[in-house]
Amino acid sequence: MTQTFKKSNADAGITVLKIGGSAVTDKNAKAGLAKEEEMRRIFKEIATFSGKLVIVHGAGSYGHTYAKEYGLDKGFHKEGFLITHDSVRLLNDMIVKGLRAESIPAVPLQPLAFSVCADGRIQSMFVEQIELMLDHGLVPVLHGDVCMDTVRGSCILSGDQSLPYVAAALSAKRVGLGSAADGVLDSNGQVIPQITPQTFESVKKHIGGSAGTDVTGGMLGKVSEILELAERTGIESCIFNANTPGNVADYLNGKTIGTRISRN
Ligand SMILES: Nc1ncnc2c1ncn2[C@@H]1O[C@H](COP(=O)(O)OP(=O)(O)OP(=O)(O)O)[C@@H](O)[C@H]1O
Ligand SMILES: [Mg+2]
User: Fold this and answer.
1) Of 58, 123, 261, 264, whose Cβ has the fewest other Cβ atoms within 10 Å?
2) Has 143 been labeled as part of a binding site?
3) Is 60 annotated as a binding residue?
4) Which ligand is nearest to the CA of 88?
5) Which reaction(s) does the protein catalyse, per the Swiss-Prot or TrEMBL entry (predicted)?
6) Number of domain units in the chain
């Protein structure tokens, strides 16, 4: 049976969306556990968007749990490396299938296959295929992954690191990170509307790791990565709650929600 896919509106520039592992998996689970209903709702919201779109999803309990168990954030462990990669691929497969069910022409892309890190940071990542896919109306779907590393043997390449790399390489217009919190919250649980390099030092004290298992720094890791993107390229991001119905569609279709991270 042939499937009909949505036509993309290619004129408005590239949008990069992170679907946080905390939004679509249970990060307190001891092994990979998907929030399937949340996934389906989020995919339906993504289907309302017709621009050029790159999706990066987090590893959630499909990655962080095994990465922690085998110490993969510190270096290479053959069995742990294989188990973790297989597990995040499983999640990626589930997400790509779910997107296809909403007529989104999603293409699975494993960062391990086209990236090399040096001491935990991306040294090179091939992105020309992503650009060509977008030109042909496809929706590439990357994910948090393990990666070969010239210093450590291997490392964890978080979605929070690949997302700004891809956004900068493709000169993305909009970058959104959907997670399980309403944005970056202060000590009273209120959303901090904007973070810039100038205000980061004063708000940093409110930002921590993750309530669940997360080997790449949770919220503080995320904010640091996209603040660096804003500083270096001027590309702004929004961190918002992907578990609030309507937010993913609203963000994709132009609204600013949650916490805005910008150069000034
Ligand atoms: N100031 C803060 N504001 C909001 N969340 C915070 C803050 N400090 C710590 N957190 C924690 O950070 C979590 C978000 O980071 P986390 O890495 O778990 O999410 P994610 O990026 O969606 O998941 P993944 O890394 O699997 O993709 C929140 O759910 C919360 O537990
Ligand atoms: Mg995280």
Assistant:
1) 264
2) no
3) yes
4) 1
5) isopentenyl phosphate + ATP = isopentenyl diphosphate + ADP
6) 1
